[in-house]
Amino acid sequence: MPINRRDFLKLTGATATGAAYAAFGFDLAPAYAQARSLKIDRATEVRSVCPYCAVGCSMIAYVTGHQAANTKPTLVHIEGDPDSPINEGTLCPKGASTMQLALGGSAERALRPKYRAPGADEWQDMSWDEALERITRLVKDTRDDTFEETDDDGNTVNRQRGFAFTGGATQSNEEGYLAAKLMRALGTVYIEQQARV
Ligand code: SF4
User: Fold this and answer.
1) End-to-end CA distance of the chain
2) Which parts of the chain sit beneath pLDDT 70?
3) Which residue among 34, 43, 108, 134 is least crowded, i.e. fewest CB within 10 A of its CB?
């Protein structure tokens, strides 16, 4: 039977550990029984795709209480889909942390815009209204200051190179479409998307 590196490590690790505990007289039966009672027992498998990058790794989301009476669907686990030819069950560290995204993130997550004034070494909270007002003002002023109608050879370019735009993989298609339209309408040349999707 062909055996890969992962199977080999699991097999040798489990055998060696089990033998070591047994040698000291421990009864492993309760531990094995507990290990078999996984949190994904009775969960529904829902296939999904990692939202983070263009690799598009497949995922399985495990949901308990799915479509059952008097229950609230609860996401309990996400892992790579072993049937996917793209990632064969693996996820990179970012994809493996998708539960944090689904459940609202860690307690350390910034919930308000932060602003660090030029020369300052501390960030200060800013309201969303203040942040949007400031971004709007800077976009307008920068575009007005840097807009170029023609290049050095006299070709019409109607572009601005004073600021760039980068999107993120958690944006939906529709958000990405609108952002690209807006940036191109402003004449923005440098448009990038971390996920290239
Ligand atoms: S972020 Fe990682 S897990 Fe997600 S699609 Fe990209 S490579 Fe795959």
Assistant:
1) 41
2) 1-24, 32-36, 105, 170, 195-197
3) 108
pLDDT at 33 (0 to 100): 67
Q: State which residues form the domain around 77.
A: 44-102
Atom of ligand 1 nearest to the CA of 87: 8
> Measuring CA to CA, which residue among 95, 88, 84 is closest to residue 52?
95
Instruction: Give the DSSP H or E segment for 122.
Output: none
Domain count, the chain: 2
Residue corresponding to tokens 């298609």? 173
- Overall pTM > 0.70: no
Considering the domain boundaries, does residue 60 fall inside one? yes
Task: Give the pLDDT of residue 18.
Answer: 56
User: Which of ligand 1's atoms lies nearest the C-alpha of 53?
Assistant: 6
Residues at CB less than 6 angstroms from ligand 1: 50, 52-53, 55-57, 87, 91-92, 94-95
